[in-house]
Amino acid sequence: MSEQPAVRQTAEHRSGFACLVGRPNAGKSTLTNALVGQKVAIMSARPQTTRHTIRGIVHRPDAQLVLVDTPGLHRPRTLLGERLNDLVRDTLSEVDVIAFCLPADQKVGPGDRYIAAQLAELMTGRRGVPVVAVVTKADLVPRPDLVEHLLSVEQLAKSVDREWADIVPVSAKDGYQVEELEAVLISHLPEGPDLYPDGELTDEPEAVMVAELVREAALEGVRDELPHSLAVVVEEIVEREGSGDPAKGKPPLLDVRVNLFVERDSQKAIIIGRGGSRLRSVGTEARQGIEKLLGTRVYLDLHVKVAKDWQRDPKQLRRLGF
Ligand SMILES: Nc1nc2c(ncn2[C@@H]2O[C@H](COP(=O)(O)OP(=O)(O)OP(=O)(O)O)[C@@H](O)[C@H]2O)c(=O)[nH]1
């Protein structure tokens, strides 16, 4: 008698890109981290701190989901705002599925309608991109309110003559439905092999992540106008000669030089603080994050510079990497 053949995995392997959009503070970064399971995007209670497109990768035996976290799609007010929106739109037209994040604790508002109208264009056409409505922060509202909210989110699609591919309520905070969302997003990916090697969580250059860590530390507890006026540029990351000793398991020391650009002298004073005290604590906090990220000892050298009106000056924007 011949042996029963082993049950073969017939499910196809899927891979592709998903992009999280939503108004500032909708919970995109937190959700990215919950899906990926490691801190990659930089979290902040402040709006519009995610300047760069940061990807996290969800690895599963049957799929690879590459998450693109974007800055909030918002009405442009400055040249920088316009650039960000262009960047967002370019990214969006290339992904396989879009997750539109709408916080459960806030009514569907003009900001959401603006984004819905933008997405409506992407949802049709040659390669219409499916949009999954994700109701974030579900832990913040009682169940009946959540149901009500889901209905208004459904209505939002109708108002732009479209339908969401799915509607999924989640809480990144307590993990509610995060796996379900993962499965839904994966169901919209095409069949294909892994796009990145296993174990790789982000393909962002280290410098960008270092800059984000410094930015996050520098913005902590400071006034509201500063987030838009602060650009962080990593000048160099170099290993200090003879600093490590692999034989003794002593990791090398990295010299990390970073410039913080603000628009006005008054902002420079805020960042630096009395007698440099604030900058020192920014440095300490950022260094700890960078050491964790790079897995070695770091000497962090921060410089604060004024670049007048950099947000409105195309030349400065280019120099600062936008
Ligand atoms: N209670 C609760 N709070 C959340 C949840 N997800 C995010 N938050 C909070 O909401 C705030 C905004 O979250 P972020 O992930 O930074 O939002 P974002 O959409 O990436 O924001 P921008 O980068 O400004 O566009 C933070 O204070 C988070 O702690 C959640 O599931 N539950």
From TrEMBL:
InterPro entries named in the record: G_ERA_dom, GTP-bd, GTPase_Era-like, KH_dom-like_a/b, KH_dom_type_2, KH_sf_prok-type, P-loop_NTPase, Small_GTP-bd
Bilayer topology annotation: Peripheral membrane protein
Residue ranges annotated for the Era-type G domain, each copy included: 14-191
A cellular component term, taken from the record's GO annotations: cytosol
Chief localisation class: cytoplasm
Keywords of this entry: Cell membrane, Cytoplasm, GTP-binding, Membrane, Nucleotide-binding, Ribosome biogenesis, RNA-binding, rRNA-binding
Gene Ontology MF term list: GTP binding; GTPase activity; ribosomal small subunit binding; small ribosomal subunit rRNA binding
Region (G1): 22-29
GO biological process, one term: ribosomal small subunit assembly
Domain KH type-2 span(s) in chain numbering: 222-308
Region feature (G3): 69-72
Localisation: Cytoplasm; Cell membrane
Subunit and partners: Monomer.
Xref: NCBIfam families: era, PRK00089.1, small_GTP
Family named by the database record: Belongs to the TRAFAC class TrmE-Era-EngA-EngB-Septin-like GTPase superfamily. Era GTPase family.
Protein role: An essential GTPase that binds both GDP and GTP, with rapid nucleotide exchange. Plays a role in 16S rRNA processing and 30S ribosomal subunit biogenesis and possibly also in cell cycle regulation and energy metabolism.
Protein name per its UniProtKB record: GTPase Era
Native organism taxonomy: Bacteria, Bacillati, Actinomycetota, Actinomycetes, Micrococcales
Gene that specifies this protein: era
